[in-house]
Amino acid sequence: MRLKLGIAKAGIALCAVALVLTWPHARRSAAFLAAQDDPAQLSELQIGSALQQDPELISRHITDALDAHDPDLAGSLVQLAAARHIDLPVELTTRVAEAVAAQHSAAGIATRFATGLVTGKAEDGASLSGTVAGDLFVFGDIRDVVREGTNLATGADTDRVVLGLAAAGIAITAATYVTLGGAAPVRAGLTLVKDARKVGRLGGGLATWTSRSARDVIDAPALQRAVAGVSIRRPGEALTAVKAAFRAEKAGGLMRLAKNVGRIGDKAGTRGALDALKIADGPKDIARAARLAEAKGGQTRAFLKILGRGALLLTTGAWNFAWWIFGALITVFGLVTSLKAGVERMTQASIDRGKARRAKRLLAEAKRAQRAQVNPSPVAAALSVS
Q: How much is the pTM?
């Protein structure tokens, strides 16, 4: 019995220690699994874990952003630090404020707007405004369609993604005017996807998906015939010809992608949308990024910079998290089983001791009775004689 009780006590101690060690991991794993479909909550958990391992993480990223002349990212990181009540060095926040103020100066905004209007490349909100302005007047989209369509007709290298996005942009521009700007987020999203494609900032999986979708929305033979007789100098003819070659019924997925990119740009800024396009592996990642941007706003770029795709989905396999939870459950089961066995052994030992005391007492009483019969007392003997 002592051996069995000792084994039970050892099991209790072992399971208790194992539970103390596994419980934090199991609780963290359960939280991650519960948040895997919520990008905002998942990002909070991921960033909390990263900051526990490296408390200086945000400060270091702010310094890197300033050195890379990206005040927008530095400002996003400062917002993240403030949201998590992290104190930053005063000189660092001062540098960020000065850089952001310089970026938002009137001269800087005007220059970037003009650059976006002329070149069609969006790097921030001001240049995107110029790019979207050019596309709303269909100048940018017609330029891209005529260039890529001519390449297609002559057999030269053709970027079918830019071609399809530009054609979709021409079609959606008419809807933007008809709805008095109601389709503007989709219009801006198409422009951002097209610009990201031009500068090679589309993620690999997303680039493949976009390429396939862009091919589907263009009737290549019709477009070849259309661009043969149009010019960027005659936008009206080009507009009619391209719209005739555009398959609106095939553009549903592309429009949803553009809408989500527009949502990101609206909440997290142009560079936030470009960052999301760079790390996304498909349209589902962009939809998650849009949910993250709507929840976190200006902090979105900071999450994307620090966590990468980890801000959008679990990068660690769910199986690993499940193993921690399973291990904790097994440990709890072992602890309960050991406690049960220990209580049973202790109860049985108590019962056995009680039985032993009662047996000893009965034996003592029987011996006293036997001695009384063999050697009766004088009083008892006199009474028996009389």
A: 0.69
